[in-house]
Design brief:
Blueprint lengths: L10 H4 L11 H17 L9 H8 L11 H19 L5 H17 L2 H15 L1 H14 L4 H16 L6 H19 L8 H43 L20 H22 L16 H4 L4 H8 L7 H29 L12 H5 L4 H32 L4 H14 L8 H18 L3 H22 L1
Helix pairs in contact: 2-11, 4-5, 4-6, 4-10, 5-6, 6-7, 6-8, 6-9, 7-8, 8-9, 9-10, 10-14, 10-19, 11-16, 14-18, 14-19, 16-17, 16-18, 16-19, 17-18, 18-19
Length: 472
């Protein structure tokens, strides 16, 4: 990419080519954008694990698979089991894990699906003993008499904790493992010696979760501390005039094709959502989503020159691609203090959320750790999403806002819209808005989109790597 000088605001170039005859209009764009935001935030309210539709689906069909375990519940359960195993290996007191188990049990009883409430018995058996598991199973069977498949699984678990896992025929063990995964392994390993293969298979994932989470916390705290120091340094340098913002000064421009960048963003958002909905009924339409980035060319049809389009979208090499990549990494670390505070707020909101809320659907893809799935996962999260989302959010949309208002308002508006259309819903709003604000700050600082694409890829890459380690 050749470096492009800032906007030329001379009278001869201010107007640019003649505007095209077609325009969507800014108000229609905003109506479409807000409609998409509303749709994205209400579409998951009906088809949750606790909804009557799902309850009825899994209640009477003996051949039906059970809904997968809630991600937060699985993570918390594995952590408790793994932390207790580590504490026992170090000859530490483990009584606190029984207390923590009671707290998690109350959460599952209050908001968990019937399947997760049944799976809890395996965790109770590990942390609190066989009798606790038996008591929980009897209570569950009395409270969910209509769930034929789960009732059968409950009777199987009763036999495990009453007579031992070796009392089960192979068919029952296989069915339990197929429907309940790691929780079934944990139940079937109950009472076995630590060195047995089945016991290792059940405890090893839990220990890995414990170690990975502890290392992740240490790493995040360390990087956040470094980021805090970098942020202070940046503020000092900014006050001293040593840092210059390289985003083009658009306040004095009379840009051609007024509203064209907002229209491009709206076309992208609308076409992507439309194709996604249509693909539910006609799956072969899904590859058409690969064409949605072509909406970035729309301003050309509205009289914007190629040079102005590249500046507006941010596709310039800035002060050199390598330098912009490094600036993106430094900018992301500097923004970690803000992101960390927002993530803590998101974690607090999960206490009031239903199971599954705040979890990205990519978690389901990560549960299949095949080589092909891992390649697809990193490709989507670290290549496709940073390139396309940055081009439209920190490119077209942010550029439209900056032609009309200041940095803070533009970054917040773009950030809230960015967070709202993500599948994490209201739970993820603080964290995603903070990430988007940091990405907009990097775009404002560098001008070029290369830095914000780098920061976006780093954020997604770290999240995907952590997810794969936790689910392995």
């Amino acid at each position: 990419m050749a470096e492009i000088e800032p906007w030329n605001t001379s009278p001869s170039n201010a107007a640019g080519p003649a505007a095209g005859p077609v325009a969507l209009g800014p108000w229609w764009c905003w109506i479409v954008i807000l409609a998409i935001v509303i749709f994205m935030n209400v579409r998951g309210c009906v088809f949750t694990e606790n909804s009557p539709i799902v309850e009825q689906t899994f209640a009477g069909d003996p051949a039906a698979d059970q809904p997968p375990a809630d991600f937060q519940f699985t993570l918390q359960a594995r952590y408790l089991v793994g932390a207790r195993a580590v504490a026992r290996a170090l000859n530490q007191d483990t009584s606190q894990f029984a207390i923590a188990a009671d707290d998690l049990h109350r959460v599952v009883l209050g908001a968990g699906s019937p399947a997760d409430q049944l799976r809890w018995a395996a965790v109770a058996g590990e942390l609190q003993g066989s009798q606790e598991a038996l008591d929980d199973l009897h209570v569950w069977m009395e409270g969910h008499p209509s769930h034929a498949v789960l009732q059968e699984d409950a009777r199987t678990l009763l036999a495990v904790y009453r007579d031992g896992p070796n009392s089960l025929p192979l068919e029952q063990r296989s069915a339990l493992l197929q429907r309940h995964g790691w929780f079934a392994k944990l139940a079937l390993a109950h009472g076995l010696e630590p060195g047995t293969p089945l016991r290792r298979d059940a405890i090893a994932p839990a220990q890995r979760v414990t170690v990975v989470l502890l290392l992740a916390i240490v790493g995040v705290v360390s990087l956040t501390g470094i980021g805090f120091l970098l942020l202070i340094l940046a503020i000092v340098l900014l006050v001293l005039g040593k840092i210059q913002f390289r985003y083009p000064d658009v306040s004095r421009l009379s840009s051609p094709g007024r509203g064209a960048f907002l229209e491009a963003f709206t076309l992208y958002l609308g076409s992507y959502l439309g194709i996604s909905i249509a693909a539910v009924f006609i799956p072969w339409l899904l590859p058409l989503a690969l064409l949605t980035p072509l909406a970035a060319l729309w301003p050309l049809c509205r009289g914007v020159s190629w040079q102005q389009l590249r500046l507006g979208l941010g596709w310039t090499r800035g002060r050199g691609v390598v330098r912009e990549v490094l600036a993106g990494a430094v900018g992301y670390v500097s923004g970690l203090p803000l992101i960390a505070v927002a993530v803590l707020l998101t974690l607090l909101l999960t206490l009031f959320a239903q199971p599954g809320e705040g979890v990205h659907p990519i978690v389901e893809l990560a549960q299949d750790a095949s080589i092909l799935n891992i390649i697809i996962l990193y490709g989507l999260a670290c290549v496709w999403a940073p390139l396309v989302e940055e081009m439209f959010f920190r490119g077209a949309f942010y550029h439209h806002m900056r032609q009309r208002t200041g940095f803070v308002v533009s970054a917040l508006v773009v950030g809230v819209i960015f967070a709202s259309i993500h599948p994490q819903g209201w739970v993820g709003l603080p964290a995603l808005t903070a990430i988007a604000f940091v990405l907009a700050s990097i775009r404002e600082w560098r001008g070029s989109l290369v830095a914000s694409v780098t920061a976006h890829a780093l954020n997604n890459g770290a999240a995907v790597t952590l997810l794969l380690l936790l689910l392995a």
